[in-house]
Structure formats: C-alpha cells, structure tokens
Amino acid sequence: MTPIRDYMSGDHRRCDDLFAAVEQSLSQPDPALPAQLFADFCQATLAHFQAEEEALFPAFEQATGIRMGPTQMMRLEHVQMRSLMDEARQALAAGDQDDYLGAAETLLILMQQHNLKEENVLYPMCDEHLAGHAGELLPLLQKTTGSAQS
C-alpha cells in the first residue's frame, strides 16, 4: 500500500496537465488565455510545494531524523522551479512567447527530474516511515493541494 506516493504522484499529474494546457493555449487567438492557464498551473504547483514543505517533509524528517537528505534537495529544487515560474509568468505578461517557451522548457525538464526523484525515492520512503500517520497526513495534503483525488 502506497497512499502517500499514490496521492502525491496523482497531484503531480494534475499539475503536469495544467502545464500542458498552457502550451496548447499558445496557438489560440485569445492572448489572455495562456496567462490565465499559467496562473492556474502556478496555483496548483505552489499548493503542492506547500503541502510538501509544511506537512510531508517535516513529518518525514521527524520520523527519520534525516533533515539534510532528500527533503532538503527537494526544497532547493522548489526554489529553482519558483524562479522559473516567475520568469515564465513575466514573459507571458510581456507577450514574449519565445522567452516563455525557453523558461517553460527549462521548467519542464526540472519538473520531470524532480517528480521522478520524489515518486521513485522520497514518496516510497515516506510511505515506509509514515505508514502509521498516513490517515492523518493524507487529509492535510488533500486540503493544502485542493485536490480530492486518491
């Protein structure tokens, strides 16, 4: 049973789908649509980061005593992704599709690598070490991410 991995991986997919919708919208005649969709993506992704940084990572660190391991690396990558999200948002606001695509491509690569590490290393470790707390932790993660998927 992998409730944390399943839930958080599902939330990755939800964020990925929102990100893909932005790129698809770039060819639409409505210039405001990509910015709105990107705002939706940012809101979902930042909520995901918040769930990890305020609930999941501290619970894992408390249960394992590991504070400078995978959770620290994930936090550093969150900082990098926030910066790239800001770059992409600014490019969209300026109507600069080329700059947006450059920042978005870098963001996509970082997100893919980040998600693989979480899904294949950190989340399984969380499921192992937090098995007795999943019943309390999952509702908190769901509330923070705003996603009720299971």
Main sheet specs: none
Q: Total number of helical segments?
A: 5
Whole-number tally of structural domains: 1
Helix content: over 70%
Q: What are the segments in which pLDDT stays under 50 over at least 5 consecutive residues?
A: none
Radius of gyration using CA atoms only: 16 Å
H and E order: HHHHH
Instruction: Give the end-to-end Cα distance, rounded to a whole number of Å.
Output: 13 Å
Classify the secondary structure makeup into a structural class: mainly alpha
Strand residues, percent: under 5%
The shape, in one word, is elongated
Mean pLDDT over all positions: 94
How many strands appear in the DSSP assignment?
A: 0
Blueprint of the fold:
Layout: H1 3-25, H2 32-64, H3 70-93, H4 97-129, H5 134-145
Helix pairs in contact: 1-2, 1-4, 1-5, 2-3, 2-5, 3-4
Fill in the keyword field for this structure.
about 150 residues, mainly alpha, about 85% helix, Hemerythrin HHE cation binding domain-containing protein, Hemerythrin-like
Please characterize this protein's 3D structure:
Residues 6-126 form the Hemerythrin-like domain. The chain has 150 residues and is mainly α. The protein has one domain (3-145). The chain contains five helices and no strands. Helix 1 packs antiparallel against helix 4 (97-129) and helix 2 runs antiparallel to helix 5 (134-145). The radius of gyration is 16 Å and the shape is elongated. The two termini are 13 Å apart. The model has no long low-confidence stretch (mean pLDDT 94).
